[in-house]
Amino acid sequence: MSTQTSVPIALPGESPTPAVQTFRLVIALAQELRTLMDQRLLPSGLTTQQAALLSVIEIKGGSPTLTEAARGLAMSHQNVKQLAVALERKGFLQIVPDEHDARSKRIQVTKKHRKFWAKRNPQDHACVAQWLAGLDEAETATLARLLAKALVSARAARAT
Predict the structure, then answer these.
(1) Neighbours of 106 (CB within 10 A)
(2) Do residues 107 and 64 lie in contact, with contact meaning Cβ atoms separated by under 8 Å?
């Protein structure tokens, strides 16, 4: 189903390298997808950023520290704490003291979170598939593999 389309990503008179082209396209795609998901989540009172934090908590084993979650989202500790406080108010997570370090806080999802996403995920996943319908299944799998590889590279660059 591969349809070729042209998306302007170069400044006038510029011939960006493939790396710069990729960077610009990933930024543009991320913004489009975030906007689409924010629109879907709006009636529930959640944002894509809040949903991303909830996903990171689950991916990190259910009880990461705020710092670990911040690293996973490439955000500041302060921004993650703001998201967590809003989600705690909404009943989607709890902020609890770390058992081994009183200065550290851990975040845990609640039953409300699990129930909410169990109900929403099938429709949300179908929408995400529709948003990426310009790619066939093999292209989507290849894109996912390449983006994961690029993410590892970007995280390594951030660590240095």
Answers:
(1) 20
(2) yes
**CA pair distance 150, 141, nearest whole angstrom:** 14
> Is 24 in contact with 18 (CB distance < 8 Å)?
no
Query: Which is nearest to 87 in space by CA: 67, 116, 61, 59?
Result: 116
Residue (of 30, 16, 115, 100) closest to 65 by Cα position: 100
Contact 128, 120 (CB under 8 A): no
* Tens-digit pLDDT profile for residues 84-119: 999 999 999 999 998 888 889 999 999 999 999 999
Q: Which residues pair with 94 in a beta bridge?
A: 108
Question: For the segment 3-40, what is each residue's pLDDT rounded down to a tens digit?
Answer: 456 677 777 778 889 999 999 999 999 999 999 999 99
Question: What is the model's pTM?
Answer: 0.86
Report the top-level CATH class of 18-159.
mainly alpha
Q: What angle do CA 79, 34, 127 make, to 5 degrees?
A: 135
Amino acid residing at 119 = K
